[in-house]
Amino acid sequence: xxxxLKQLKGDRSIWLIVVMLSLFSALxxxxxxxxxxxxxxxxxxxxxxxxxxxxxxxxxxxxxxxxLVNHNYxxxxxxxxxxxSLPLLLYTLLFGANINDARRWVNVPVLNITxxxxxxxxxxxxxxxxxxxxxxxxIIGTEKGFIPVIVPTVVxxxxxxxxxLSTALLLFITSLILMFIGRVKIRHMMLTLWIxxxxxxxxxxxxxxxxxxxxxxxxxxxxxxYVNGNENDQYQITQAxxxxxxxxxxxxxxxxxxxxxxLPHPYSDFIxxxxxxxxxxxxxxxxxxxxxxxxxxxxxxxxxxxxxxGAFLAVGLSISLVIQALMNMAVTVGILPVxxxxxxxxxxxxxSLLFTSVAIGIILSVSSDIEKLNVVSNGNFDKDTxxxx
Length: 389
Description:
Largest sheet: 3 strands, antiparallel
Number of helices: 14
Number of domains: 2
């Protein structure tokens, strides 16, 4: 164990948080996929557990490799990733796999797998914004410094909107927060907000007049159900609330969820409800605490980072993950309308889990480089000595 720990650089608390969330993931996914296993795998309940453990293992491998790379290399990668993401998003929008009137996935012919291009675009945009905000700090208050920030933000979000409104809103909010931290002027941020909202309303208005409304009809129905508050029209939320009530304050009943048989997608969108049903409100609070602790550790990295790029990189990626987690949990308890956002590192997933692992690996890379700088500045060259506490 000691040898393994020596290989892990960066903030040890973040590593521990990731391990704990992964443990919750394995237990909850195994429980939540029981019905799915009987439906698709002839009762082989271990199939989805093995798949999830494999993805978790692959995610840790990607995280480990990403954290070994000096975070300054991501400065160069950011622009390339964004240039790759834009045509991929456009291709997905036009030719992607159509599932529930949404084109979010692209099939990879040789490997015979699908991946969600918005996951790559989200990572690429945040990295690119970190690059531009750090590069243009001396002129960030001018149009020359602001235009390279606003244009990619609006373009990427608009390309994601038709298939995945919730992800586009999440990314847009994250970008605005990152701009605020990067000292972008309020009037420029309001301009970004106005442009984004105007384009969204224009898109909704045009699509609403067409016979095939795509995802707009789904958005409207979800918002109407949420505003009306009629539980008879909110089947998912009603079943989630039953799961929350079954959990009570404290419960230890792994694998004994009842609502997994009634909740749509209990292994992804509503896995938080399954966790509370099996581990009680205390289990739900532990999950919230882990995400907030993760954000706190990333804020410490932001504060201690000697370079602007590493600071923006760590805080931008962490805010994106934590906001997504809070939005997922808010949907489960009925605070927000139903969305398609998963619970990062916990929900059963494929590309989402892998890209999340890469994002955390990049954060750990920034943390690791801070450790090295502090060790050198203190005159102590013991590479195994952690500095961030």
